[in-house]
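quick one
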Amino acid sequence: MKPIIRVDNLTHTYGQDTPFCRSAVDGVSLEIMEGEFLGIIGHTGSGKSTLIQHLNGLLRPTSGTVYLGDRDIWADPKKIREVRFQVGLVFQYPEYQLFEETVYKDIAFGPKNMGLSEQEIDRRVRDAAAFVGLDEGLLDKSPFELSGGQKRRVAIAGVIAMEPKVLILDEPSAGLDPAGRRSLLENIRAYHRERGTTVVMVSHSMDEVAENVDRIIVLADAGVVMSGTPHQVFSRAEELVAVGLNVPQVTRVAMELRRRGVAIDPAVYTVAELRRALSALKGGTAVC
Amino acid sequence: MLKDITLGQFFPGTSLAHRLDPRSKIIITVVYIVGLFCAESFVSYGLMAALLVTGVKVSGVAPKALVKGLKPVLFIICFTAVLNLFYTPGEILAQFWVFKITKEGIFTAFFMALRISMLIMGTFLLTYTTSPIALTDGLESLLGPLKKMKVPVHELSMMMSIALRFIPTLIEETDKIMSAQKARGADFESGSLLDRAKALVPILVPLFISAFRRADELAVAMECRCYHGGEGRTKLHVLRYHARDYLVMGAYAAILASVLTLAHFGL
Ligand SMILES: Nc1ncnc2c1ncn2[C@@H]1O[C@H](COP(=O)(O)OP(=O)(O)O)[C@@H](O)[C@H]1O
Ligand SMILES: [Mg+2]
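structure w/ adenosine-5'-diphosphate:
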């Protein structure tokens, strides 16, 4: 696999030349592979949102470079809009950006800015609505009549409709109820599976990340502290706790079992895995 | 970029200027402005300038910050100075086409520029050393007597404090909404004037909706805490004049009196 986005020694300082200046991202280097489902986790204020706003050129690095493919995205600042169509970014609480009279028009805002034909826009709007699980019937409603969860889906569809090569979501499930959260994550997973495009999900919930992503990058205090598969990351539970993060609940159960003398791999991180590990201990047949 | 806007920015501190009662500061600022408009000679302008310098020194505000505040009005200052330079009748020093430069013109232009600059720096000194909340409290208290004339003083000052409180929030929100729309390819920087005006819709609609939502939430929160207007409402921080307030106000009154006396004798 080759990287689709490469970040090289990126630093971003807010409010330079003021007494309040502080680096929100400090010397970060990372690679995002084509087609992967990447999770970025870190405690609140660790610089996740700041980092991802560099990936589509909303923020300009104080120092360092962001490459999309082989090109430095700031090589030609006039072409930065092109980058934004290829790297779709869904902000945290995206429902506050809705403004059109109908759901359809709001989802069409991005594709329209790309200068696509009516037909193509129509296809993309309907596709995107289907991906996020919005009924056709809702397309003609005002977005302001919808429930909070539906609004969020409309906003996400608005970015998916641009058919970006990389889809980045900043805490997509924040503030949703458990059922809404599960079904939204299932939609995102299905989108990744069917489209095969790269998806980056930012989150501070370990459970959420553990169940969905191929690879995890852990941020703490403006820098990358860990990166690897969920198995690799969760086997370093103490370090995670030290940077203010929790391990998934399942992992905590396994760690506690191990502490009490059960010979189990402490780095299990999904319910299915734990079940498999436990039944293996019992002789490999029973299903609890 | 939007964050660079400063509206009467407040620099917290503990100097004498910070500790004065906001009412005293409002009063002496008004007195200072009156003094500026009465000053007509080098001596009285010198007095006013000395007063400003003392104020800046006492407050510990960086003079650079004050001068920076002049930038937005630089044009107005130059414009009035030039007008005064050419249109004041008197002893002609130089003349070309319809323009005459007179000796009086030079003096008036110079004093006018000085007067406006000092006026602005004086008021900035007030907002730099007084928090917006203290300022509205002071205004409410000073305008108190108008309540007898059915002027809703308390409501006005409450509106002002709420507006001041929400300016940074709304600026931050505008920033966020702009970024979100830019991420969907919105373009605010190119196109005709009409295109640019249209490009504001995706920012203004969400911004208004969120402002109304916030207003609604705030109203409910205030009602939950039994807010029912100014009637019978007491304050956590009661404004009280101290000896320093009387001293400073007395000094200002004396200086204003001497400026007036000087003006009376044509100095
Ligand atoms: N627009 C901004 N101006 C100034 N400081 C900011 C701004 N946005 C974020 N920060 C600061 O940068 C740091 C990282 O914030 P952020 O990237 O939002 O973290 P996260 O998304 O991980 O919670 C925080 O300390 C935050 O206060
Ligand atoms: Mg964030």
